[in-house]
Amino acid sequence: MEIDSLINKTIAFVQSKLKEFDGGHDWFHTERVWKLAKSICAKENAGNLLIIELAALLHDIADSKFHDGPESLGGDMAYDFMINEGVNKESATHVREIINQMSFKSRMTEKSISSIEFQIVQDADRIDAIGAIGIARAFNYGGFKNRAIYDPEKPLQEYSTIEAYKKSDAPTINHFYEKLFLLKNLMNTETGKAMAEERHLYMEEFVKRFMKEWDGKA
Ligand code: ADP
Ligand code: NI
Fold it and tell me: Is the CB of residue 25 below 6 angstroms from any atom belonging to ligand 1?
């Protein structure tokens, strides 16, 4: 099948699936990850572009935060879609692996070692969680979950299980310390590292300023 037509069909499929989810997790997140992944692939001059595009586009079609099914649901749905569209088994299997590895659990572990395609798509997804976009997404998610923006009485927490993370009512500022500030050191590619550096500094400035204003000092 023509690659362009496969990508267009994939976009339509993903858009129909994502309609069910919240605003910070919508098609535009996927579109940004897709663009970031393509540009990291070009800068690194590495990886199979079709695998990268398919994995980026399909990576969030069934986020486990929004359903009670198994973590592997998204990967399985993506696999069935690809096989239906005539993608060969080997490529479809690789894309499914990337999607499954990007699920929540692997994000809590140290740097992943896997294919360059996985590394690039994971970097793209992590970059979209930081910087100005990352700040906006965090507060959007916090609002969706009806969480406070900040509460000095609520300590930072580590989550040992997915259930604890899903149930948490921690304020959104905590999320910066629990996840967003950690992402810079988890980047796989040199291109990803450089992009994360700038976005990280921007978030640090934001939180500094936030605390000053909280205390009425600015
Ligand atoms: P992604 O789609 O980038 O893989 P997630 O599914 O983990 O990321 O989360 C979607 C968005 O919601 C991200 O921008 C993330 O930072 C944000 N988010 C996730 N958990 C929280 C939380 N507890 N508080 C605030 N924002 C959160
Ligand atoms: Ni994502």
Answer: yes
Extended strands (E) in the chain:
none
Ligand 1 nearest-atom number relative to CA 129 = 14
Mean pLDDT taken over the chain: 89
215 Cα: distance to centroid of ligand 2 (angstroms): 34
CB 103 within 8 A of CB 71: yes
Report residue 137 as tokens.
Answer: 């997404």
Which residue matches tokens 């149930």?
167
Alpha-carbon gap, residue 182 to 208, rounded angstroms: 17
Taking only the tens place, the pLDDT of each residue in 126-150 is 999 999 999 999 999 999 899 999 9
Q: Which residues surround ligand 2, an ion (CB under 5 A)?
A: 60, 125
* Closest ligand 1 atom number to CA of residue 138: 26
Q: Which two tokens stand for residue 125?
A: 């997804």
Asked if 59 contacts 30 with a C-beta cutoff of 8 angstroms, the reply is yes
Q: What is the pTM of this model?
A: 0.91
Report how far residue 171's alpha carbon sits from residue 82's, in angstroms, rounded to the nearest whole number.
39
Contact (Cβ atoms closer than 8 angstroms) between residue 58 and residue 74:
yes
* Greatest CA separation for the chain: 61
Among 22, 25, 199, say which to mutate for ligand 1: greatest number of ligand atoms within 8 Å of CB. Answer: 25
